[in-house]
Amino acid sequence: MIIESLELKNYRQFRDQKIVFALGEDNKRITVIQGANGTGKTNVLNAVTWCLYDEEKHLGDADRGLPLVNNISLSALKLEQICHVKVELVLRTKNNEKMIVTRVATFKKTGENKAERVGTPQFEVLYQKDGDFDKAPEPKLTINQYLPKDIQEYFFFHCERLDDYFKGPYNTRLIKREVFKISQLALFENVVSHLKNRNDEYSKELKKTNPEANHIKHLIDDKQVQLKEAKDKLEEYLDGEKEATQLEKQLERKLRDYPTSEEIRDLQDRRDKLERKAYHLEQQVAELCEEHKDYLIKVAPLLMAYEAISFMQDNISIKDAAGLIPPRFRRSFLKELLDRGFCICQTDFSKNNTAKKKIEELFRECDPLTDISHELSVELRDLETMKTAVKFFHRENVNYAKQINSMKKELKEIGIEEKKITEKLQKVDDAKISRWEKELEIVKKKKREITDNSGRRKQEIEDLGTEIAKLVKEYERELKKKHKRTELTKKLLFCSKAMKAATDIKEEIMDEIRSEIEELTRDQFFELIWKRENFKTVQISENYDISVLDQNGVEAIGTLSDGERQVLALSFIAALNIISGFDAPIIIDTPLGRISKEPKANIAAKLPNYLKGKQLTLLVTEEEYTEEVRKKMREFVGKEYKIQFRETETGNEAEVIEYEA
């Protein structure tokens, strides 16, 4: 979907304006509207959202206290006279059919520069079908099908406010919320909620008929309450950890940028290298510990069953040495001959009793193991492999322990050296460096404590999850017992399984979407960023914590410049937009506001590739849309406008005119 035109009548600064947008002909899909701050640039964006949703999400402080109606038009009215505010959007769908969205509000003048809304607001959607226009019976629903209100910020957004995603300690929760919203998984939430309500109703009835199942159900509910509390506490710890990390990076940045002696600079550089080395070593220790744990889990059954394995191997070996494996005859083969009454040479046992007795004698002497002789031969090889694994257990276990201990020893030595450097820096004859170093040490200590607490909380969450899973199985077994298999228990069993299925599906989809958003954010980030070599990757963890790793693999999000953080935010928004699946036009207010001169030109050159295939409208200031930026984008810009603003004695008016260099 694209915007063909936007018509404004008596809307804020705009008395009578019509803006025609670039439609994508000749690859020119970008519309640029330039205006100084306060001239109505952002109100172009507000006009679109007001027309569609009766909402002005990006209203500035200067406009917040003013009536919607244009103040010049209002001044021309007499008291009690009315004036109409109208915004009309002409949209074009993928099928090249038009949709006309119109919102009209009526105002009555109540005093000098004062007005109140009167009457019923008019909201109308006309859509083209087979060349003719029909009126949508449910205009809100029609708009929501194409441009859902809940996710409008991924189509129409103000760049200056994107910092909320990555600035401050609460970005994890915010990102998770936005991913959930864009994934449109509310349906699963509704399903789970509905099932839970039904489950609670049935549980009350169950108390009378199955006290044992009811008791288990109460245990499950208690554990789930504990699990929620543990998850909430973990979120607090993660927020605190994020805040501490950002403060740590700020202090480190201050120390790095502070003009000082070469000796102090060398100490700071040495500590930075030690910190990076420690970070990688900690990762390696964690991976090796996990590998060691998996190895122990794999070998543990063999260690416990070693005597049984040896006994079995010895017995099979004795049979093998005695020539019973492979056997001359299988016991089952001889029994088959006796049952049939004929030998394979066609001797009839009923006529030849000697032959029959010989076969019977062989049958009695034949070991029952002969029927599984092939399996025993295979088993003998497997048993040997098991014994070999046990034989080398001590060596492997010691090897793991040596590697882990060696790395931990190295980490300890690094920690000692880091501490010595910190103590030296705290004692330097410079008040700022000394103070920052002491603050940095306090922050690092606090961060370590928070990390330890979050680690314990994660383990608690894992343990509670395991306990709940066991209780759920026990609960289901109790419900399945024959003598208690009633219609009520069938319903409870269904609710239990359905809730788990819906929750599992929701989490699976969320994880798939998280991975996809991570990949798309990374691609867009490296498409727009001007210093690609400074960064290694962008990641979104399972906890929805977004990270930007520098070329050394160290977290760098806390040290990103305003411009770099804005590029990250733009990349994230682009990823969410793509994931949403809606073919919507994009309007961005102040896209280059925080970006300095050289990077600004670089981004301008790459911005046309941002959200390829989408109609893009940029609301920019003169500082953003420099001549250099304009040259870089000219090939893709179909429409250029400038907002001319004039102040009069009776009010302000903005006029959108064709851009002239």
Describe the structure.
The structure is a single chain. With 661 residues, the protein is an alpha/beta fold. Among the domains are: 2-21 and 39-151, 3-Layer(aba) Sandwich (Rossmann fold); 160-183 and 513-637, P-loop containing nucleotide triphosphate hydrolases (Rossmann fold, 3-Layer(aba) Sandwich); 303-384, no CATH class. The chain contains 18 helices and 14 strands. It has helices at residues 41-53, 61-64, 71-75, 139-146, 171-183, 186-209, 211-257, 262-304, 306-321, 331-340, 353-365, 373-391, 393-426, 431-480, 487-528, 562-580, 597-606, 627-633; strands spanning 2-11, 14-20, 30-34, 82-92, 98-111, 114-129, 132-135, 156-158, 535-540, 546-550, 586-589, 616-620, 637-647, 652-658. A 6-stranded antiparallel sheet has the order 2-1-4-5-6-7. The chain starts with a strand and ends with a strand. The model has no long low-confidence stretch (mean pLDDT 81).
- Taking the alpha carbons of the first and last residues, their distance comes to 30 Å
Q: How confident overall, as mean pLDDT? A: 81
Query: What is the CATH C level class of the domain at 160-183 and 513-637, in words?
Result: Alpha Beta
Helices, by number, come to 18
User: Using DSSP, what is the number of strands?
Assistant: 14
Q: Helicity range of the residues? A: 55-70%
CATH superfamily membership of the domain at 160-183 and 513-637, which one?
A: P-loop containing nucleotide triphosphate hydrolases
Low-confidence stretches: none
Q: Which descriptor suits the 3D outline?
A: extended
| CA radius of gyration | 37 Å
Percent of sequence in beta strands: 15-25%
Major β-sheet strand ordering: 2-1-4-5-6-7
Q: What summary fits the major beta sheet?
A: 6 strands, antiparallel
- Classify the secondary structure makeup into a structural class: alpha/beta
Which CATH architecture of the domain at 160-183 and 513-637 is right?
Answer: 3-Layer(aba) Sandwich
Might you state the CATH topology name of the domain at 160-183 and 513-637? Rossmann fold
